[in-house]
Every structure is written in structure tokens, then in C-alpha cells.
Amino acid sequence: xxxxxxxxxxxSEKISLSDKVLIVPHTRPDFDxxxxxxxxxxxxxxxxxxxxxxxxxxxxxxxxSLSRMIFDISEEYQVVDVKKYLxxxxxxxxxxxxxxxxxxxIAIRDYLEKFKRKIIIDHHLKSRETIEADYEYIDINTSxxxxxxxxxxxxxxxxxxxxxxxxxxxxxxxxxxxFTQDVTEKTFTDSGFLLKKGANTSYVNSLFKExxxxxxxxxxLIGYSEFINLCYVIAAGKEKIYTKxxxxxxxxxxLKYSADASFAVGLIGxxxxxxxxxxxxxxxxxxxxxxxxxxxxxxxxxxxATIEGTDVESAVKKLKLxxxxxxxxxV
Length: 331
Ligand SMILES: [Mn+2]
What we know:
The protein is α/β, with parallel strands linked by helices. The chain has two domains: 4-207, inorganic pyrophosphatase (n-terminal core); 212-323, Diaminopimelate Epimerase, Chain A, domain 1. Helices cover 41% and strands 21% of the residues. The chain is built from twelve helices and twelve strands. Strands 3-2-1-4-5-6 form a six-stranded parallel β-sheet. A six-stranded mixed β-sheet has the order 7-8-9-10-12-11, sandwiched between helices. A hairpin with a 3-residue loop joins strand 11 (297-298) and strand 12. Helix 2 runs parallel beside helix 5, helix 5 runs antiparallel to helix 6 (162-175) and helix 6 (162-175) crosses helix 8 (201-207). The longest helix has 16 residues, at 31-46. The chain is globular. The structure holds manganese (II) ion.
């Protein structure tokens, strides 16, 4: 049973025992990873503990609105990359992951054993990649890591500014797909709380503005959608190179058609195929488990995988077999 009170106790105890705290959102952080990180800094501040946010990506390769947010955050908070943090690391630090629990999406993965204590805060399904931690709070039924951290901020009665409320609100809006997925009554209570703290909805809306050319490319990919058994939709782009975010956007979009689950497949780099998948929450379809069969992972409703050394056609063939094992394909 996930319990915010217990998380608060564990967090307080481990923060107070440690010299400093490294907050670790996933690599290629999104609004949820960043918003929840900023919220966690506020908790460390309240407990008078020095804390850092780890971002080890080349900002210029991220979406413009993300690089803008990271820039804004680094003006106000201590944002460090792995190299910089290794200079600061001593033998009594706490690592807190947020919006991530798997090894491959943690930039500081090679140095995990150097942290005296570790806590996981996440809303993604565990996998064989999940790192060992002293305490884990993983609630796959919560919309976002930002929602979990908002509950924590309330439990701690932390004072925070409207900018922090805005970042957390952006995290909830992103991962709940604008309050349509993994949403409970509590999501609205927490979001209402953030609005009361001054979350700026027009700033959040501006974060979700799309670039026309890129959106066109995503819609071309959506145009390749193939409907299977009235349950699944697969959109496979065979020519262009996509980013993981493009595939995620396409998979999200396709769900608006009558499908239990959607899959966007495309080339994401040299010899690398990406699959992004989403489901509408139908309990019989767990895309996290489906993506695990491709070496990936995620939650029941949102997951992804990267496959090397194959092509789009073969990846789609394998996907169809996984979705419908009884089907005979002309391979
Ligand atoms: Mn998230």
C-alpha cells in the first residue's frame, strides 16, 4: 500500500542523515520529471539540506519548450550534469529518483553504488531494470510523479512559489494527457491546490504549442495507421527519422480513435527502431508488459522500447505476433 505519510517519514529520515541530495529525473526529462524535481528541491530546502537536480542531456537536442524550461530552472536551482556532480559527491549522499526507476534512464547509473542512500519516487511499472533502493514509492495508479510530489508538498506544508506550482501543474497536465488519463478525484484536488498556489495555465499551455513542420511529420506518421482486430492501431513510418517524443505524440494521438492500444514505430537513429505505445486504460491491455517483450518498459498505459539491429518492417511483424500470437503471418 502506497502511503504518502510513510514516504514523508522515509524521505525526512534519509534526508536528515545525508550530507546532500541529488534529485534524478529520467534522461531526456519531460515536464513531469522536471516539475517533480523542482518540488523535491523545495522539500530539501524546508529540511535545510543542499540539493541538486541532475540533467545530463544536451539541451539543444530537446524540444524547444523543454530546453526553455531547463534554462529557466537552472537560473534558480542547482542543475548539474554527471561530471559536475561527481566532483561534489562524497560518501554520505542521498539519491532520489523521480519519474524513473530503471537503470537505463538514470544518467548517473554507473555511480549508483557511491550513494549511501537511495529512494525511488515514480509512477512507472517496475521492471528487471529497476534499481535497488532503500525505499521505493511507486504508484502506477497516480497520473504523474508531479502529482505524488504535490501530495508530499502538502504533507510537508512547504511554502512554494507560483513558478514551482506551474512546473508541477505542467507535469500533471502532460502525464494525465490534459486530465484524461490515470486521473482520480485526488488529481483534481492536487491540481486545484497548485492553481491556488498560482500555477500559470497560460504558461503551461504555451509549453504544449507545436512546431508546424514537426507536427506535419507526426501527422504523416499517423496517416500510416493500421487498425488490427478493432483493438490495436499500429502506425509505422518507414522513411523518416523520428525522435522518441515524435513517436510518443503519434501514439498518444491515435488513441483518440476507437482503439485499446496504439503503437507508433519508426527509425530513431542509425540502425535503431523506436516503439512508443499507449493504452486507454483497458485493464486487459498492459502496454508496459508488451514493451518489455522488446526490451523496453513503462506503465500499463504508457510505454516504449528501443530495438537495435532491425528494420521497421521486421519490428512491426514481431509486434503483430506479440499482439496476436495465434495469427499466421506470411513472413
Ligand atoms: Mn511521468
